[in-house]
Write the structure tokens for this entry.
Amino acid sequence: MKRHLLSRAVAGCLLVAGCLLGAWLGREVGAAVQESRTPANSLLQQDGLLNRLQPQFEQIFDFVFDGPRLKLDRKGWGDPPKIQPKANVILTANGPPIEAIFNQMRAQAGGLTGSSMSVGANRREISFQGRALSGRLATSGDVVRMELTESTAPERSLEWFDDGKGSLRLLLTHPDGDMVLFQQSKTGTATMAGVIAGKAFAASAPSFLQLYKQHRSLLDNQVLPVFQALAIRVVPPSNTPEMKRAVLALVTRTPQTLEEGKKLIADLDSDKFATRDKASKLLHERFEVYKDLIQERLKDSNLSQEAALRLNKIMAAHPDAHKISQTIAALDLLHDPAYLVGLLEEAPQDDRAKVAAHLEAVTGQRFGPDVAAWRRWLETSRK
């Protein structure tokens, strides 16, 4: 019964999302999407049982760019996080790896009140009802559908669909009305719709990359943080400190800083422990500047064991490094005047001249470090 109620709730939310999108299609984009620079306080970001599933969500939702589209990298599904399951977990011999991850979530249901499993020629389904969490997982070949609902406050529901061929959907809902839908079709068309803090929005584009470029403020401040609160990192928002530091490092890097990085890496083989330790600390602190040097050095077969251990430890401390680099490249942030002007405004005083010089090279304008002049130019160029 709970499963049918969950399905009805999800269907109702999809209907609402469809209505929102339909309304948007009849208007201009500017009227339909209110892109506030201030993050909304969403009911979807309240703390609950879904937040306790971070290890499983991180493992499942490993998104990467596939050209202008998004796709899930499923390679990590075969090695679930080492979490001790509780009693009465359904055994899934010969089942897809995603079932083992799902059973780890099932083990946190807070005491089961019901469960079932069915296996057919081309389809497998597991469902459970618990005092804290209820869920359903259905698989058929590469197609995966999962539904999770909190049985206690804040009683959110998460629906996820992925066919392994480009079509995917994420829907998060709250019983008091807030919801966010992200969907990508097999052809790549990307759609987002929802209600956050009482404000409705909807937008669509031929690809996720185009959707992000056209509605970056909305995605960065509203949509992506909702999913990130559950450790579902679709892509790193471009307005995070980590992203800004990475772009700033690339913009301000000089041949001299590269030589400094090479010396620090060489110092990892110093005879003096203090020198090796200082080099490790500086490479970690300036990781965005020296990241590619570290990655290249790790490929060297002649790398000493201690240096390899230190460099791998530094890489492990920055798990999102690859996604950050990929997002910077996909959005072409190094050549985005609006993003660079924002970076100039926040950059440390010592770096502003370099950021301004980069802006001038990108735009052909000559305003130096004068942020107000750059902002006036941006407003004029948008008209």
